[in-house]
Amino acid sequence: MKKLISIGVALALLTMVLVPGIVGAYTITPDTYAKIPFAIIGSGLELIAELVPAIEAVMGPLPLPLDTVLNAVAPWTAGPLSWTVDMLAWGMALGADIWGLADLAFGLGFPAIEDILDKVAEGLMWCWGENCTAAPAPLP
């Protein structure tokens, strides 16, 4: 039981040290709400890259330039990888259009599904903060 408490205290102390560092290292700004997870991962990779010199000071040189790799991967994660959200929104909007036409042509009786898919697509592109390059989506 004492070991579990020790592990819990160590994790709590680690969290108290890392969370302010992660928040302070937040240099990648997403343009939509749906891209926030990609920005968090990218910022986390930047933070780890900043910690590599401290790790090397304790453990010695690492076999690969980890900080260089992480600094290259972080912007890609928050940039091109986050474009998958844009593609998902495009697919949802396209699906809404197709559903609307199919519902009209075949009399399926579920026109609300088109509205639901359109709302999801708009929500994925909803601007976050002042850093918005996406088309503004209407409020739900």
Q: Can you describe this structure?
A:
With about 140 residues, the chain is an all-alpha fold. The chain has helices at about 1-25, 35-60, 65-80, 85-105, 110-125. The termini are far apart.
Distance between the termini: 50 Å
**Major beta-sheet overview:** none
Rg over alpha carbons? 22 Å
Structural class: mainly alpha
Mean pLDDT reading: 81
Put simply, the count of helices is: 5
Please tell me the total number of domains: 1
Low-confidence stretches: none
- The proportion of strand residues reads under 5%
Please count the beta strands (DSSP E, at least 2 residues each): 0
Name the helix and strand elements from N-terminus to C-terminus, one letter apiece. Answer: HHHHH
CA-based shape: elongated
Helical residue percent band: 55-70%
Outline the fold blueprint:
Layout: H1 2-24, H2 36-59, H3 66-78, H4 83-106, H5 112-124
Helix pairs in contact: 2-3, 4-5
Question: What is the structure about, briefly put?
Answer:
It contains 5 helices and no strands. It has 140 residues and is an all-alpha fold.
